[in-house]
User: Fold these one by one.
Assistant:
Number 1:
Amino acid sequence: MNQRTWLHAWLMLLPALVMLLAFTHIPALSTLWHSLYLPARSGEQAEFAGLDNYRMLLDDEVFWQALSNNLWYALGTVPTSMVLALVMALWVNSRIRGRTALRLAYFTPTMLPMIAVANIWLFFYSPEIGLFNQLLGSLGLDSINWLGDPDWALPSLMLMTIWKEAGFFMIFYLAALQGLNPDLYAAAALEGASPWYRFRRLTLPLLMPTSLFVLVNAVLNAFKLVDHLFILTKGGPNNATNLLLYYIYENAFAFFDSNYAATLTLVLLVLLILLALLQFTLLERRIHYR
């Protein structure tokens, strides 16, 4: 490669590199730097704290509660959304009447703004007058304080998230299903393979690249929820729905402790990296790229 070609290649890469540095690497380094300082008092410079913020984090009960909530939230929403998305994709990919309208119905929640979704479900969950409690009353059952009861608040958020995201993930599965080679299924049918056997031995293995993509996105979405919490629960009751990113938001913009928020951000970043490595390590061997 001559010098002119080398220079041309770097000039082509320069805009992307500038954006990557400006919005990814420099903010990450700045966050790490801020996590090593205590908040600056009025008229004074910020004091170097070393690892004190991280030691304080280990004793922070709210942090551990938010971390536990987030893990349960991910465990409840990610597999359910993926399975439901695959089932919907299989259904709308089959030759049924009105499948175009059905696809639109499944995808509609994805097109709604997150704030609008939260307000819609706030009406569903309202005590006494909410849609769900009206349905319970018509069945002769007692009403439930969906967002005010610590036992029901987090599952209620999970249900709303599954409703919002399953249609989005369905689109990826539907695109992958339509790209599968029909000759494989014709050959399997000639061999007498049952529909369940074809699904287990053909469809699922061929969809593994899409499943990995959807899984990574679903896990990321599970750890970046803020909008819905701000509208519905604000982390309550008694931190029962407080998630990591919302706790970071609280520390940065409600408690004005940006240094501790930077510490929490670094912990969340490391957690997401570990989860991504775990996903790729466990699933990479089972993925068959075409």
Number 2:
Amino acid sequence: MVKISTLLFAALLLLFGCQSNNKGNQERLSVAEPDSIYQPKYAKGFLIKYYDGYRQLVLNDPWGDKTKFESIALVETAELKAKLQQTNDYVLDYPAIKWIALSSTMVNYADKLEMKNTISAVAEPQYISDDFIQSSIEKGSIRNVGMAVAPDIEVVVDVEPDFMMVSPFKDNHFSAITSAGIPVVTNADYLEHTPLGRAEWLVFVGELLGKGEKAKRQFNAIEREYLAVKKSVQNISIRQSVFTGHIYQGIWYTPAGESYMANFFNDAGFDYIYKDTKGTGSLSLDYETIIDKAEHTDCWVLIINHPLAISYTEIEKIDKRYTDFEAFKSENMVVTNASHSLYFEKGLLQPHIVLADLVDAVYPGIIENHKAIYFHKLDKK
């Protein structure tokens, strides 16, 4: 009977869960002047306002609508809760002590802040490499909510988290969760177009978990190291030309010229062959187009998920056409096999290391005693 009642409750939430939690834009931000504001240097998706007794996280619309935003008040006293509920989308206790992470990168934020013990549930744990998370799932102290795009509402409600952190989707997948009274906090780091912009979301997560100052110090250290590597290649007289991507279901996807990866290449001192294209997403090309432009390019930077170790022989097995590129023939390829390097899981918060990897692989000797973590020059046959 309890099981049937729970399922009926979930069904009703799905049926009536289309009500928006958003209040009118003119009402949702505090009218009082903040004591101070954290305006990110690189991230475009958030800012933080500090008031006496609480913090307000302001989230810009992930899709660029400047008339829309969300606000989250982090309160230190119970007296402020009722007052701020009318001017914020969510009012949360500060700091949060129990939350749900729907991606492995969110777990990585908590790891960086030494706050993994605050995670009460995760989505798709098969993609999370962290030993603490895996052992906690086995013991039952961390729950599995299933798929990130459709978390199990019964488990979410049972966990009773302070909030659930999600990546933004244009379609609202979480209306039933919010209708159940669970705050849904959007982390739009993957929509940032610069490596430091993505890493700066560490400050956002840090504020939620009561580690804002620590997160700022950590990000400042990341920034310093990143900028030092960037400076080391500024005087290179002849930039190596590079291309990237590979064939997936008949299409060659490569970053547009204003994208996250294109910015990485520029900071690494590369001459990216599609640097002059517009857009922040990916270009969808056929093989004929890419071979025409990239056949004689100096270097191929390959990001791939592959179960086996990557070698020139293995690349030829994947697709014989890859041997047509001069970068393959001259054995001038830089590779990360994400299924082994954990680039997508951990690289976001180590852009300084990623940048150093790229520079060291293409311009060896500029960075002394560097040990590759994510990208490496592919060994010769």
